Amino acid sequence: MKKNYIPDPLILAILLTFITMALAFFYNYERFGVFENAVNIISWWNKGIWDLLAFTMQMVLILLLGYMIAISPLLERLSDKLIRFTERPVTTAMIVIFTSLAAGFLNWGLALVFSAIFVKKIGLQARLKKQKINYPLLGASAYVCMMVWHGGLSGSAPLTVATAGHFLEAKTGVLGLERTIFSSMNLLATVLIFTILPILTWIIAKKSIGQIPVFDQKEAVSSISEKQQQTKLSWMQLTGFLIVIGLIARMFITDKGLSFGLNEINLLLFGFVLILLPEAGIFTKTASTAIGSTTGIILQFPLYAGIMGLMKQSGLLEGMTHWFITISNADTFPLMAFLSAAIVNLFVPSGGGQWAVQGPLLTDAATALGVDPAKAVMALAYGDQLTNMMQPFWALPLLAITELKAGQFIRYSLLYMLLGLIIFTFVLL
Asked: Backbone phi, then psi, for 115, in 5-degree steps?
């Protein structure tokens, strides 16, 4: 697979919009006249675009703040220290995948950027020492963070339904994180991924011959922030500590428990950013660098919101829900939801956008079949995670930093996807 064969994600979102418009038109062909039907479709789409502005901003901040943390001086120093343990190819691969998985569970924006920077530094070191490594495997191991993110602390769907006032609250209520991210099912899935995927990486790295990496860029992507000696606690750091401590105290002292939503997670990340970037000038420069990574979300999420509006107002969701129920029962529904989400993710490569489109369908079907809606949320999360391994949309930042082509590491990411399919099927049944 060559990179220039990969459609632009924005083009995919636009195509999906037109496909949904066509489906809505024919679904209501006998109900309305041609002119009235066309006017209704434009009206439904326009209304949907503006319904998820708050959600769009929440997801922008998730990526933006995660990116800022990834290129902070502390994280740069951490990557430099980890580099010291990457003398042997097998050890290097294991460090990369464990680092990627851990970061991915914490925050997908942080994981993507930090893992990419880390791999690029490893490649530059290998080139300098004329050391042969399996660089594409390292790239795939870095990208595997996207197979744990939606079941992690920045997962769009579980964080959305844990947020009071979310767009499906009337159907599901507020689902605390103890029912989704911190459920026994998800913790089991996470442990299995953290165990089995590194074993596969170890086997591949053990048998790989590798080669000396070649780069066009001379330098690795590094922190934009200037390294300065700091002896006092700045007011920004103090504010950050107060935010972090306050949120942790809220978790354990108040009756909210683990019911953190997107707003709380973003506030927590903001607190860490203030701690790691303690000067206004540094903060601004880092934010300016990171803001470009959010372009895809800003442009695409309104389109996904429009699609949701079309599906809801046209009756497509109701019709699809009925069909979904007819081919499922209480036992098979989680697996069917998982597989459908995996397929949809190939065309809607955004966890948040996918939840906006599929969430109403899955929650309606779960309610009708007597399935815990929290399990439906995680089934979608697993499906979205899984096919990220063959959908290069979220790999674009990593590809740009590492100078890899999608086709170079996709053969490894597909193996990760196969193991993920087995793991997620096991925990859902």
From this structure: -65, -40
> pLDDT tens-digit profile of 332-373?
999 999 998 898 887 776 788 788 878 888 998 898 899 999
Q: Please, are residues 269 and 208 in contact by the beta-carbon 8 Å criterion?
A: no
DSSP letters, 190-228, are HHHHHHHHHHHHHHHHHH---B----SSSS----SSPP-
CA 77, CA 214: separation in Å to the nearest integer?
24
Rg (CA), the chain: 22
| Of 358, 344, 355, residue with least CA distance to 388 | 344
**Cβ-contact 338, 151 below 8 angstroms:** no
pLDDT over 80 at 270, yes or no = yes
Note whether 96 and 301 are within 8 A (CB): no
Q: Are 348 and 357 in contact (CB under 8 A)?
A: yes
Which one has a higher pLDDT value, 387 or 409?
387
Do the beta carbons of residue 38 and residue 25 sit within 8 Å? yes
Which bin fits 242, alpha (ψ -120 to 50), beta or left (φ > 0)?
Answer: alpha
How far, in Å, CA of 409 to CA of 388, rounded? 13
Q: What whole-number distance in Å separates Cα of residue 388 and Cα of residue 420?
A: 11
- Angle 113-208-104 (CA atoms, 0-180°, nearest 5)? 25
Give 222 or 356, the one with higher predicted confidence.
Answer: 356
Report the alpha-carbon distance of residue 27 to residue 15 in Å, rounded: 18
CA–CA distance, 396 with 404 (Å, rounded to integer): 10
- Other Cβ atoms less than 10 A from the Cβ of 170: the count is 8
C-alpha span between 38 and 395 (Å, rounded): 37
Q: What are phi and psi of 370, to 5 degrees?
A: 75, 30
How does pLDDT run across 76-102, given as a tens digit for each residue?
788 778 887 777 889 999 999 999 999
What's the half-sphere exposure (Cβ side, CA atoms, 13 Å) at 276? 26
Q: The tokens 């920077």 sit on which residue?
A: 117
**HEC string for 402-421:** HCCCHHHHHHHHHHHHHHHH
Among residues 296, 313, 263, which one has the least CA distance to residue 51? 313
